[in-house]
Amino acid sequence: MPLTPNALRSRGFTLVELCVTTAIAATLAAAAVPSLSGLTQRLRMQQAESELMLTLARARNEAVSSGRRAAIAPRADNDWRTGWRMFSDLDDNGELGNGEPVLMESPAPHPSLSLTAHFGNMQEVVLSYGDAGFVRRPGSNALLMGRMVLSDGTRNRVFCFGATRVRVADGSTCS
User: Fold this and answer.
1) Which residues, other chains included, contact 77 with Cβ-Cβ below 8 Å and sequence gap of 6+?
2) What does the alpha-carbon distance between residue 21 and residue 18 come to, in Å, rounded to a whole number?
3) Mean pLDDT lowest among 5-9, 20-24, 85-89, 111-115
4) Full set of structural domains in the chain with CATH
5) What phi-psi label fits residue 13: left (phi over 0), alpha (psi between -120 and 50 degrees) or beta?
6) Fewer CB within a 10 Å sphere, N or C end of the chain?
7) What's the rounded Cα separation, in Å, for the pair 85 and 73?
8) pTM of the predicted model, to two decimals?
9) Residue 51 DSSP SS3
């Protein structure tokens, strides 16, 4: 059975139809990219926040259950952006020494994130949980109060260290 001219025309797309469809698809894809990058950045912030909160909870639990200091410190150069580690601070000096077991290590947050500590005029970078479960300054029983700020450049999450607990809030201050 021979094909009629109308049957041949209805078999596919014309070049113009294909170009218009491709242009529409490209426009929709371009519109979706910014929202995906925002989602990716929010997920990075949530991951870093969760990782730090998990470390704080585990350090508190370790200190209470073992009756010894559990410290959290930056992995390198007193810079929290390099990641952090939790260890049993047997000599309570805030430094990882020989024979002090590392209990947990967290990788560096994504390079687009920053994490900075603000503990008053003291240059503290180490968090130390005592056997009662409170954050203390290494080498003493003095309370460690202050904040740590996790930022992606546009949004901040602040970890507020108080007398009895740690809370997380939006912004850069603990007010």
Assistant:
1) none
2) 5
3) 5-9
4) 13-170 (3.55.40.10)
5) beta
6) N
7) 6
8) 0.77
9) helix
